[in-house]
C-alpha cells in the first residue's frame, strides 16, 4: 500500500497522507483498490498484463465505450451511470511502470453495491434489463472500432483445444483426480456444429463479454440498477455470449466456486425473468435468429467457463486467481454442474426463445 501511496497517487495529484487504500471487489484478474482522500475518491487498478498483453488497447476500448455511453446519457438515451476513466496529472489515461505495474484509475460511484448471487426474480429482471439497456445503447457504436483485447476470448473450439493440450501435458500432475470432468467436457463437442452454423448468420455487436452479476452495480439505498462496470473486455462479438454468460451466472443459487454441487441448479424462473427483461430492452434490434441463439449462448458459456477453469487447474492456476488449493477445480465442477442442469431442462427452457 505504501508504494501506491508514495508512487501512484501523486501521479493523480493526490498528496493527502491520510488517504485510505483498500482492496475492492473479488475479481479474478486485476488488482483493484478503492482510494479515498479528504476531497475525493477513485478506483485504482493494476492491470494484469499477463492476461491483457496489450493493456493500451484495453484502455482505448474502455475510453471509447465510456465516451459513447456518456453521449447517450447526455441525449437522454442511457439511464444508467457511466464508469469513466480518471486522467493522470499529465492527461494520460494510464501509466506503465514496467516491473512495478501498469496502472489506471476509474471513477467510483458512491452508494454502489454489488451482489454475488441472484436471490430472486426481481434481481434477475433488474440486472438483465440493465445489461440489455447497456447493449442497446452500444448498438450504434461500430463494433469494428474496438480492437480485440483478448483474441478468440469466446472461442469454444479453441478453449477445448487448450484443455486438450493441458490434459496431454499434465504439467503439475493433476489430471488423475479430475479426469472424469475432463472426459465430460470433451464429450460435449456436438455444440461446435451448432455454433458454426449459427455464428455466420448473426450480426456483430459491441459486447461486454463479462456479464456476471457482480459486474452490475446496484444503488444500496433502494437496490435499483446503477451501472454496468468492468468494461475491460468490451469487444465485437455476438449477443448470445453476453446473454449466455449473464444467465449462467444468474441462474444458480450458489456462488460459482461453491462446492455444494447438490445445490447447484439452473433455476428456470430466474432464466425466464432474465430472458424477458433482456429481450425487452433489445426488442428494436434483436433479430429472430439472435433471439433463438440466446439459448445456445447459455449452454456454451457454462461449458466454456467450466473448461477454462479446468484448464487453468491442470496448468497450475496461472490465469485465474485462487484462494485455496483446488479452487479452480471447484469452479470448474460448479460451472459444469450448471451446464448439466441446463441440458437436463432443455426441452422446457428452449421455449423461452421462440
TrEMBL record:
Name the SUPFAM superfamilies on file.
Protein kinase-like (PK-like)
Query: What Pfam families does the record point to?
Result: APH
Sequence ranges assigned to domain Aminoglycoside phosphotransferase in this UniProt record: 21-255
InterPro entries the UniProt entry points to: Aminoglycoside_PTrfase, Kinase-like_dom_sf, Pseudomonas-type_ThrB
Top-level taxon of the source organism: Bacteria
Q: Which PANTHER family match?
A: AMINOGLYCOSIDE PHOSPHOTRANSFERASE DOMAIN-CONTAINING PROTEIN-RELATED, SLR1880 PROTEIN
Record-given protein name:
Aminoglycoside phosphotransferase
Amino acid at each position: 500500500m505504501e508504494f501506491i501511496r508514495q508512487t501512484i497517487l501523486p501521479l493523480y495529484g493526490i498528496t493527502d497522507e491520510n488517504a485510505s487504500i483498500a482492496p475492492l471487489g473479488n475479481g479474478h484478474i486485476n488488482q483493484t483498490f478503492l482510494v479515498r482522500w479528504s476531497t475525493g475518491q477513485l478506483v485504482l487498478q493494476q492491470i494484469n498484463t499477463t492476461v491483457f498483453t496489450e493493456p493500451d488497447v484495453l484502455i482505448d476500448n474502455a475510453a471509447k465505450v465510456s465516451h459513447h455511453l456518456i453521449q447517450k446519457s447526455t441525449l437522454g438515451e442511457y439511464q444508467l451511470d457511466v464508469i469513466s476513466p480518471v486522467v493522470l496529472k499529465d492527461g494520460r489515461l494510464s501509466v506503465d511502470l514496467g516491473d512495478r505495474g501498469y496502472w489506471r484509475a476509474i471513477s467510483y460511484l458512491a452508494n454502489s453495491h454489488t451482489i454475488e448471487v441472484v436471490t430472486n426474480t426481481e434481481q434477475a429482471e433488474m440486472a438483465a434489463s440493465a445489461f440489455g439497456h447497456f447493449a442497446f445503447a452500444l448498438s450504434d457504436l461500430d463494433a469494428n472500432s474496438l480492437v480485440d483485447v483478448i483474441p478468440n476470448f469466446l472461442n469454444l473450439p479453441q478453449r477445448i483445444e487448450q484443455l486438450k493440450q493441458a490434459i496431454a501435458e499434465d504439467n503439475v500432475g493433476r489430471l488423475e483426480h479430475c479426469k472424469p470432468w475432463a472426459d465430460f467436457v470433451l464429450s460435449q463437442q456436438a455444440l461446435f456444429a451448432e455454433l458454426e452454423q449459427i455464428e455466420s448468420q448473426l450480426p456483430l455487436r459491441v459486447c461486454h463479454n463479462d456479464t456476471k452479476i457482480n459486474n452490475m452495480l446496484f444503488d444500496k439505498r433502494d437496490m435499483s440498477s446503477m451501472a454496468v462496470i468492468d468494461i475491460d473486455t468490451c469487444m465485437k462479438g455476438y449477443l448470445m455470449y453476453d446473454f449466455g454468460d449473464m444467465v449462467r451466472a444468474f441462474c444458480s443459487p450458489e456462488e460459482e466456486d461453491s462446492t455444494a454441487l447438490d445445490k447447484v441448479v439452473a433455476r428456470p424462473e430466474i432464466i425466464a425473468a432474465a430472458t424477458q427483461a433482456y429481450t425487452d430492452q433489445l426488442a428494436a434490434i434483436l433479430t429472430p435468429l439472435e433471439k433463438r441463439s440466446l439459448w445456445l449462448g447459455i449452454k456454451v458459456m457454462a461449458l466454456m467457463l467450466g473448461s477454462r477453469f479446468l484448464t487453468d487447474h491442470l496448468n497450475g492456476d496461472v490465469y485465474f486467481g485462487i484462494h485455496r488449493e483446488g479452487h479452480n477445480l471447484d469452479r470448474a465442477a460448479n460451472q459444469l454442474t450448471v451446464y448439466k442442469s441446463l441440458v437436463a431442462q432443455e426441452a422446457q427452457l428452449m421455449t423461452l426463445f421462440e
